[in-house]
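Incident log entry.

Two folding requests arrived from the same account within the same minute. Monitoring flagged them as a possible duplicate submission, but the sequences differ. Recording both here for audit purposes.

Request one:
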Amino acid sequence: MFTDPITITINGSAKTLARIKSTGTSSDYASSDGNYTMTVSHTMKGDRVRTLIKVGQRVVATDPLSSENDYAWLYDQRVLDRPIVGFDATTIGYLVAADNAWIVTAGVVGKLFGMES
């Protein structure tokens, strides 16, 4: 089990997320103001394990047509889908690091936002 609370850093600002729910192989975390969330869960099916890491950020957004304010959520999620045997944590870490490095390369997020593939 991860430590409680979890700290994530967004744009240089640390956000503390306390565990608010834990059931077996799944835990939910949230900041005290509810503007940041994280879910970590694991599902086994056959000879595979799927791990979900999902981070959310809530903002107040104004609808440009009606000028009404409402909450909007942004989520970043990763699914690690691995066989039970064949890969160790170090090897998985290399793949995760490569993925992270590519995503934060200059211009990649903008291209993803523009729906390039």
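Request two (distinct sequence, not a duplicate):
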Amino acid sequence: MKRIVEVSDVVTENMRPGVMDKLGLNYEELRKVRSDIIMLSSSAFGSEGPLKRYGGYAPSFAAYSGLTHLTGYSDGPPNPMTAIPIRPCKRSLRRSPPTVSTAWR
């Protein structure tokens, strides 16, 4: 990984807080490899607060946000979100423009 950082401008990660530290890949360590590296950390439930240690993926986001309650039939249980496509890449796409503009500077 550090060899890739040597030739990169930006590192993005979406692990739970603390995982990159355990891997020896936190921002401070990556700056030792490349001093001008830009790092974007985007964990599922944030880096602070009571949910920060939870991992996440599309079905958990749907359930936690209440989206599953809005699906299905009125006389039945909520839809478990198995048939509804949720695009996890949207999150990364929303964060790309500010990250790229930072690297451009």
